[in-house]
């Protein structure tokens, strides 16, 4: 007889960092290719927003439900281990994450095939994100009038303000961890004291991912991209692009990137008023 998810042996609790590392191992097994320092950075975004389900203390499923502020949250890392699926554990984890986020507008990046299920939970398609990949080439990262500098040299409040204008919310705790993670490089494009864009490239289980890549315009995004990959020539690099940003798609084409797969960006309410024309690369599919 299949185990019942209502059985008292199934417990949902908040993750600690060790639990989150386990969840990211599951994500890697699913082909999601997490970064080497994702656990620490993700946890910094909202330590209360990660849930794990256990059967007799054995971890069997998880979900993240990061509350960025009182108005916006994001669902990710929704996994039940294969041998425990089709027993109702996933829906209990889902309900726990949704309950934690309450009345917020909630976003997610889901696989296309699951759109009907997300619609049943009140999510509406906003646009598609496409993952592109290529082999990094060393290129000319010069850009007239805009300097490319280490992001740590930019006053943090300025970088945080730029990030908040490109993202759906301010996320200072996450950003501070994200730009300082190990085996990563964070660069900013500046014009005097004005931030024109920034990006992060981090080592993952397979190759490197760039995310976010936020910029005022295509030339700035191009310069940041080339500077970010200049130190990883010969490595596989991935970039997750909002399909509705035609210039971001053009940037991927310029660098001979090919599409790997796509996700459906969905929200429970209207899509936040983030300027997608500045989003040349999504931060992560797990946290938005």
UniProtKB/TrEMBL annotation:
Residue ranges constituting the N-acetyltransferase domain according to the UniProt record: 10-142
Pfam families from the UniProt entry: Acetyltransf_1, Acetyltransf_18
PROSITE patterns in UniProt: GNAT (PS51186)
Keywords: Transferase
Any one GO molecular-function label of the UniProt entry: acyltransferase activity, transferring groups other than amino-acyl groups
Xref: Gene3D superfamilies: 3.40.630.30, 3.40.630.90
Protein name: GCN5 family acetyltransferase
């Amino acid at each position: 007889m299949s185990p019942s998810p209502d059985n008292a042996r199934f417990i949902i609790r908040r993750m600690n960092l060790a639990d989150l590392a386990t969840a990211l191992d599951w994500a890697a097994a699913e082909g999601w290719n997490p970064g080497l320092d994702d656990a620490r950075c993700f946890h910094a975004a909202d330590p209360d927003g990660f849930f794990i389900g256990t059967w007799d203390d054995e971890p069997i499923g998880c979900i993240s439900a990061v509350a960025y502020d009182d108005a916006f949250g994001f669902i990710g890392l929704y996994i039940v281990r294969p041998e425990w699926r089709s027993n109702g554990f996933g829906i209990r984890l889902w309900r726990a994450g949704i309950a934690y986020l309450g009345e917020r507008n909630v976003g997610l990046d889901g696989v296309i095939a699951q759109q009907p299920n997300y619609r049943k939970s009140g999510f509406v398609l906003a646009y598609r994100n496409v993952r592109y990949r290529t082999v990094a080439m060393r290129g000319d990262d010069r850009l007239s009038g805009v300097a490319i500098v280490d992001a740590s040299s930019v006053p943090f409040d300025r970088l945080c303000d730029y990030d908040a204008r490109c993202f759906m919310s301010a996320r200072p705790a996450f950003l501070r961890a994200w730009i300082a993670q190990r085996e990563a490089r964070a660069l900013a494009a500046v014009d005097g004291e004005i931030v024109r864009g920034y990006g992060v490239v981090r080592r993952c289980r397979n190759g490197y991912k760039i995310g976010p890549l936020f910029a005022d315009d295509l030339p700035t995004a191009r310069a940041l991209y080339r500077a970010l990959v200049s130190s990883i020539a010969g490595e596989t690099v991935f970039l997750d692009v909002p399909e509705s940003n035609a210039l971001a798609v053009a940037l991927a084409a310029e660098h001979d990137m090919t599409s790997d797969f796509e996700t459906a960006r969905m929200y429970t309410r209207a899509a936040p008023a983030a300027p997608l024309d500045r989003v040349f690369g999504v931060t992560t599919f797990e946290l938005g």
